[in-house]
């Protein structure tokens, strides 16, 4: 079946089974490989994308469901909050092996867009679905606080 799917501001026509996970459409069909495969069960967060502005796991979201939404991937996310997160990630040495980073960044951006001045609890809740093999969780929290403060919201 054919589905029209909006990804990164462009409509793509995809011929695939409606139950195909969005992750595989992004990576294999559209060649957007910034979104990573980690577990396939929506448990690790490596495949996080924004669906109508909300962070979602693309490994369990079907093409059929995704075709009615606006999808943004790590390749096209933009804004002052994105730059603040990127700068804070570097300043706090968050990336280690780098595997989880696209999902971590997408979740952090969604948090900052929803919560101007996140507390440690807000951060822990928002980021709890993103596993990091290198265990940089304290650095992630510090980086999010730093990004929020740079955006004009002292934490």
UniProtKB/TrEMBL annotation:
Highest taxon of source: Bacteria
Keywords in alphabetical order: 2Fe-2S, Iron, Iron-sulfur, Metal-binding, Oxidoreductase
EC number: 1.3.99.16
GO MF: 2 iron, 2 sulfur cluster binding; isoquinoline 1-oxidoreductase activity; metal ion binding
Leading EC class: oxidoreductase
Metal-binding in keyword set: yes
Domain called 2Fe-2S ferredoxin-type: residue spans: 1-77
Keyword Nucleotide-binding: no
SUPFAM superfamilies according to UniProt: 2Fe-2S ferredoxin-like, CO dehydrogenase ISP C-domain like
UniProt xrefs under PANTHER family: BLR6218 PROTEIN, OXIDOREDUCTASE WITH IRON-SULFUR SUBUNIT
Protein known as: Isoquinoline 1-oxidoreductase alpha subunit
Species of the source: Mycoplana azooxidifex
């Amino acid at each position: 079946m054919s589905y029209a799917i909006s990804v990164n501001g462009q409509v793509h026509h995809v011929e695939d089974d409606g139950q195909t996970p969005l992750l595989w459409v992004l990576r294999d069909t559209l060649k957007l490989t910034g979104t990573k495969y980690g577990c396939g069960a929506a448990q690790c967060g490596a495949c996080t994308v924004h669906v109508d502005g909300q962070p979602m796991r693309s490994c369990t979201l079907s093409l059929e469901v995704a075709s009615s939404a606006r999808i943004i991937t790590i390749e096209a996310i933009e804004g002052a909050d994105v730059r603040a997160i990127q700068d804070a990630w570097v300043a706090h040495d968050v990336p280690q092996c780098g595997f989880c980073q696209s999902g971590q960044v997408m979740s952090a951006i969604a948090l900052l867009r929803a919560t101007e001045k996140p507390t440690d609890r807000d951060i822990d809740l928002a980021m709890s679905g993103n596993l990091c093999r290198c265990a940089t969780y304290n650095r992630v929290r510090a980086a999010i606080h730093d990004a929020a403060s740079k955006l004009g919201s002292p934490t």
